[in-house]
């Protein structure tokens, strides 16, 4: 099967296969459809991979169904061994994975290596450890014994976004496999190469053919086919709220498959008057611009108490603008800010900045495109850079305050009382994350129980941990990735009533 040759850091080259990964083989898509993959930094065509459509998803489902009985029966300790092996192989090839994130998703190599790959391997190891510990309970019932078992759903679909493709895949893959399910992963069309590399390692680790199938493709065809498929019993989706609705509708009108939705957010970061301001400025600055703001838990609405507003804004502005000096090729050492994922995402974010100006918000800094000092980008396909942008003088009804921008754009709001900030922070349709900066334990506890969010960060921001559930409330979705709680979303309960026959 053909492969793409990619060039990583320091000119080191490596290959990833171009086919769909089905039953441990890389194969062409049935209709020979393909996807062109571009480097968002340079605009160069990285290569072409096969793109799955409905018939390919169906083939993957048939292969996964064949693998299901063997995988279900495989002892937990064997599943554990394979998941550990996969984690070790990802760690071994961390440089390749970091390079792939930089090449097709524009993510900063060093940040991916330090966070995404570390977390992805932690999560696989965490769930490897659960594979032989998923048990039910036993109880007395009238004239007999009741067994309550947790069983896998069967064939499951994993639909992945482009903004952290390996990490988010592992959030779903670990608990799905540990619970005895078999999977079809739909890689994102803009950043499919992590999935290609992962397929190689699944085969190398020795997973039985058909247990993990990976299909890059378009959402409207491959993604929709997963959501509608009559033999797929569960879909775990991460992406926008708008697409999440479509997945839920497709599930409802097909076979009522179970659905987990990790959707968008519009996180509030709250800086109280007793906060350590240097710490708050550090985390809120990172939390409003990391990965160019293309992060679902972004703390893009920053609420600062009157008494410390001016001091905070001063410290925050220094930290948030200095990264501009380190833009460039995300593959290179020393680069802190890469390009946006695509030209259309760039245009979308710039249109929100225009909307903010039009609505009368006051630009504190940013608001403009940046140009790579090396100036090597191909203007036709390179996505371009956007300066970290912050508005003040905003009101809660402005578009830039209400909608998820998914770019490096934040708003700073002044507040006086706890009641006021709770009301404003909760006024969002989203409920994914919130941060609180304070040294007062009572305030922290009052606020963290009053805020409507699946993730609450106290004196920090965006620090995922394999043993903590990750998910949202309200329009940010339902269900969990990570943490032991995720296993509930990958298993269904079976109650067995064992009637005791009268013996002789
Ligand atoms: P999208 O919703 O556009 O896409 C997510 C995935 O769904 C992609 O693989 C996409 O395919 C696929 N898809 C598109 N249409 C359909 C369809 N009709 N049926 C099934 N699948 C479909 O999101 P983005 O990729 O643009 O990711 C950004 C969004 O993801 C943001 O809103 C962000 O907040 C959210 N997100 C949430 C996270 C969380 O954990 N809560 C984490 C990360 C991101 P294709 O690749 O072709 O577009």
UniProtKB/TrEMBL annotation:
- EC number annotated for this UniProt entry: 1.2.1.3
Q: Reaction catalysed by this chain? A: an aldehyde + NAD(+) + H2O = a carboxylate + NADH + 2 H(+)
Top enzyme class, one word, equals oxidoreductase
Pfam families assigned: Aldedh
Q: Which InterPro entries match?
A: Ald_DH/histidinol_DH, Ald_DH_C, Ald_DH_N, Aldehyde_DH_dom
Q: Give the Aldehyde dehydrogenase domain ranges.
A: 28-495
Family to which the UniProt record says this protein belongs? Belongs to the aldehyde dehydrogenase family.
User: PANTHER family, alphabetically?
Assistant: ALDEHYDE DEHYDROGENASE-RELATED
Instruction: Please state what the protein is called.
Output: aldehyde dehydrogenase (NAD(+))
Q: What is the lineage of its organism?
A: Eukaryota, Fungi, Dikarya, Ascomycota, Pezizomycotina
